Amino acid sequence: MGDIKISKQYRKNDIRHCFADNNKAQKLLGWKPKVTLEEGFKELIKWSEREKAENSFGKAEKELK
Asked: 16 lies in a domain?
């Protein structure tokens, strides 16, 4: 493969910034989150600490062939 060039310039139609906003769901559907963002991150961290990391690359590669 050739060298990767990083130009630091955005291409047409690239997404530069992405922000989650659930206000529309709250207004139209009456939806409200069950946990705050901070609580959600704490739960995610606890979950990731309990999970066993596995390297499944070889298995996935075989299945794709």
From this structure: no
